[in-house]
Every structure is written in structure tokens, then in C-alpha cells.
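Backbones bend. We report:
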Amino acid sequence: MDRLDRAILRHLQADGRLTNVELAERVRLSPSPCLRRVRALERSGAVSARYHVLGGVLSPLDGVRPEHLNLERLVSRVSEPGVSEVILALNATVDGQTTAHYITELLGHLSVKVTKLAHGVPVGGELDYLDEGTLSAAIRSRTAF
């Protein structure tokens, strides 16, 4: 997965309703190669889910409250048959983590697994250049080899 693939995934996570033409413009590709990359990502399993755009994160200092986010529709969609997991893909910031906790509580009455993306050492990253917080997150998110 290269820089363009990561950019495609980032844009799809931000707005899953983008058309291929809109996505191609955002990642600066022509539509045909962009579509080929999206299909390759789908075949690889990197993109096989539906996306939901919250429209931001909770931020008391900025006045962003739960009613400002697209949470009602999220609960409605997660309540539909066939949904077994919600993967939270939010920034590793205080506001992102606050939002993740809020959503976890909000979905607690439903029989779905709520998970989050791992945080820590990036692929190709060197330990010498990691800050203590990133290294700590990587240790907490470790998996069996």
C-alpha cells in the first residue's frame, strides 16, 4: 500500500459517498486509475465495509456537541440486520478519543462489537524516532507474532 492508496482510504473514510470522479480529483489521479486502485483495495480486503461520516468530533472547547454530529443516523445504520462490528477510525487526539468513548457508550445497547484502529509504530517506522506516547500506544496495542 503506497501513499496514493492511503490517501484514497483517508478520503473514503472521511466521506464514503464520494463519486469516483470526486475521489480521483482529491487524490490527483484520473478517474480510471483511481477506480482500479479502489477495486484493488476492495479485493485486498482493505475496503470491504460501509462508511459513515460523523461530520467532526466532539469538542467542548469548540462548542461541538453530540447533536452537531451525524450520530442518530449512525445508530440507525448500526441497528440494521447484518451489522456485526463498528470500527472507529478517529484521530488519536483528546477530541477523537472522547468521541470514540461516547460512540461506544451510545452503541452499548446493540449487539455489535465496537473496535478502533490500532495506534503506534507506523510500518517502516524506526523506534529511535518515536515519541514516548506513540511507543506507549504501540506497546498497549501489541499483538502476537
